[in-house]
What we know:
alpha+beta; 2 domains; three-stranded antiparallel sheet; two-stranded antiparallel ribbon; 1 helix; binds zinc ion
Amino acid sequence: MGLPGSALPYQATDGSLQCLAVGVIVGLLVLVLLILMAYQRYLAKKRPVQHLCRYCGRLVTAVSDCHHAPVKEEFLHGVCQACKKDCKLVCPTCHRPV
Length: 98
Ligand SMILES: [Zn+2]
Ligand SMILES: [Zn+2]
């Protein structure tokens, strides 16, 4: 008679333990993902970004279109290191946009 009543607390404990386990696993996965993203950013900052020039068909380090100087690359554009202005990224060999 007392069985259903006494089984309930155990089930409840089981359920919350499972919830806890799932929470911990999800938390760990998110942590791993964040570490991977931080690592990728670190790598991207460390080495110059290479672009494939469609005209010479080579992997090149982009330069600015105004001074053909090295650029600090942002998303889809860059900052010319010679005049510190916004510039386009071009191929150092053929001076065409990459
Ligand atoms: Zn080129
Ligand atoms: Zn410039």
